[in-house]
Amino acid sequence: MAAHTHDDHMPALDGPCSPAKVLLREPLVLNNRSYGWITDRIAGIVEKPQPKIWWYIFIPSVMLFLVMASLFGYLISTGVGVWGNQHPVSWGWPIVNFVFWIGIGHAGTLISAILFLTRQKWRTSVNRAAEAMTIFAVMCAGLYPGLHVGRVWMAWFLAPVPNANAIWQNFKSPLLWDVFAVSTYFTVSVIFWYLGLVPDLATLRDRCKPGIRKILYGLFALGWRGGNRQWSHYEMAYLLLAALSTPLVLSVHTVVSFDFATSIVPGWHATIFPPYFVAGAIFGGFAMVLTLMLPVRKLYGLEDLVTAKHIDNMAKIILLTGTIVGYAYLSELFIAWYGGNKYEFEAFMLRIKDGPYTWAYYCMMFCNVISPQIFWFKWARHNLWVVFTVSMFVNAGMWFERFVIIVTTLARDFLPGSWDMYHPTWVDVWTFIGTFGFFMMNFLLFLRFLPVIAIGEVKGVLPESDPHYNPDALAGGVTEEEIRGEAPRTA
Amino acid sequence: MSTPVKRVHGFLAEFASVSDLYHAAERLRDAGFRHWDCHTPFPIHGLDAAMGVKRSILSKLVLVGGCCGTLTALCLQFGTQVFLYPTVVQAKPVNLFTIPAYFPVTFELTILFSAFTVLFGLLALMKLPRWNHPLFNSDSFSRFSDDKLFICVEAKDPQFHREKTRAVLEEVGGKNIELVEDDV
User: Fold this and answer.
1) What is the Cα–Cα distance from B8 to A489, expressed in whole angstroms?
2) How far apart are CA A306 and CA A4, in angstroms?
């Protein structure tokens, strides 16, 4: 075989040659910030008084939280009749809201665990806030099933101990699987979050003047000294937790979907439910991360740490998962027709055409499938208002998804004689609004007392944190934008 | 009245950059020091090899913890559902072959036990919590969690010598070398 000649494509090697240049990666921290600047900026948030707007959100949040607490008191003292749950829709808003909140609680562990395993270094700027959000969202979610049991003082029957008559739980029930899945998820998320916080708590401890704050931060920092013999075990622990959390985060919403999929109700009895729920959870969780992080980065001046690249990446994940969710919606419809089950087919016809809740189905479709498609365009991913608006659409859309799955399905099951509409009561509505107060109150307290960005982890992704860092080689480097002749990206 | 007695904990040296610290660590490792550590605000990639630190055994502990979780879950479910209190729901059989229904709880408890082993195993391996430590007596040390990189060679190292160790640390690029002492 004759040797190929590359004369047409290769530059002449004997001519004058420009020296090779390093292709610069887009920096994860802009403006060449130093370690000290990162510490000051992030620790400064908890050390300085909060901006006025913090109080403007915090006070209403506490009030809404109190509304929620009082309504729970009313519910417990009166009975679940104060909710709109009624035959045939016996799983109304409480379970819609449970699934909604638990879904939001998926992004934190996804960012912490899956993006860690896939070595996505950009996660360091958003993982702490996302993990905190996860914990608070799971707390909101956990309230609902506990109260939905009706007689709250009997909720301990869910725990794996025999009850007063020595009767054990039915371990073949998806509802019991759910108890294990959600409580394990909450516990592991808290452990993950807390271990991540330890080095940063040490930073806060070392910056405090002696006093109650120093004692408390010091207590929870456990005497951290940042020795490499500690870091070595610590990094192994972080890797292990990431490896454990990755299947865990996928399992939680899978088990939640089993609550539905193992029943025989048309519209619920589907094998697509686990992947469909998991994709939806990641989708809704990322939307909530964006909803919270966009104001936080603006308010506390964190634009150099949570950069346009971070937002761009999260918008792309929303686009991907939103499209997966859209695919799941369409394949549900296809299987309803192709499967030849008349009840299933009718259930979906009532969702998309002439049903009592068809409007909710199209709200869901628009918010979850259509609206994220704008993220195919780069300008949309870089326009913060567009990103924020889409994230709000997704938050609403994911709530509608759960409403469609639960309420529209139960309102129209096998027998037309048992069909009825569902009407939430004012208690349902205000309890749900109250959970947002509870969530925001927790998140604002987190901003007030704990570092919102993982200080140590962000320092670790700076170029000079690499032992083989060579500033001279990087000084002459070119960026991708320069090669393409585009303007440099800005925050 | 008695004069306070101080015990030498070791020498604390500061390093200007990550690569200086890294190369100093390699040289201290080659010099045969054993009781010393690098104190940094963030984990440094490759420093374990530069210091000669072995791979953490935490993963082996977690394997054991996870297996305990699996066994606990299987015993809990089979023990209660097959032996202690067989409940026939929807005519599903009650025997040892009903294991698919037990996968979710088995999985969750495996993860839960593993995660607790990570937490408590890590604390045990790091010898934390320990709120008092001689290093905290040094004023400059408190910036380890901000932007300073330190190496501390402890007095309990067999090679430790008041003058020679200081000279070694200076030679490998250490700045502001400080003798850290502890109250007895």
Assistant:
1) 53
2) 49
Rounded average pLDDT over B76-93:
84
Give me the pLDDT at residue B174, please: 87
Facing A188 at nearest CB: one of B22, B111, B146: B111
The alpha carbon of residue A159 is apart from the nearest alpha carbon of chain B, in Å, by 12
Predicted-assembly ipTM surpassing the 0.90 threshold = yes
Cis peptide before A11 (omega within 30 of 0): no
- The CA distance from A461 to B143, in Å, is 19
pLDDT of residue A26: 77
- Distance, first Cα to last Cα, chain A: 54
Q: How far apart are CA A253 and CA A278, in angstroms?
A: 5
Low-confidence ranges of chain A (pLDDT < 50): 1-3, 5-8, 10-12, 491
Residue owning tokens 């590359």:
A6
Which sign does the torsion angle of CA A376, A393, A269, A358 carry? negative
Chain A neighbors of B112, CB-CB under 8 A: 184, 187-188
Taking a C-beta distance cutoff of 8 angstroms, is the pair B149, B101 a contact? no
Q: What is the pLDDT of residue A489?
A: 54
Alpha carbons A113 and A463: distance in angstroms, whole number: 23
Query: CB A82: neighbour CB atoms within 10 A?
Result: 17
pLDDT tens track for A325-369: 999 999 999 999 999 889 889 889 989 988 889 999 999 999 999
Residue B151 has phi, psi (to 5 degrees) of -125, 135
Task: State how far the Cα of A361 lies from the Cα of A153, in Å rounded to an integer.
Answer: 37
Burial class (CB in 10 A: 0-12, 13-18, 19+), B8: middle
> Structure pTM?
0.90
DSSP conformational letter for A89: B
Closest CA to A114 of A286, A340, A327, A312: A286
3-state helix, strand, coil in chain B (%, to 5): 50, 15, 35
For B146-178, the pLDDT digits (tens) are 888 999 999 888 888 888 888 888 888 888 888
When CB atoms are compared, the residue of B58, B109, B147 closest to A237 is B58
Torsion of CA A211, A459, B119, A438, to 10 degrees: 70
Give the DSSP H/E element, type plus range, for residue B183.
strand B175-183
A440 and chain B in contact, CB less than 8 A: no
- List the structure tokens of A485: 């002749």
Type of residue found at A76:
I
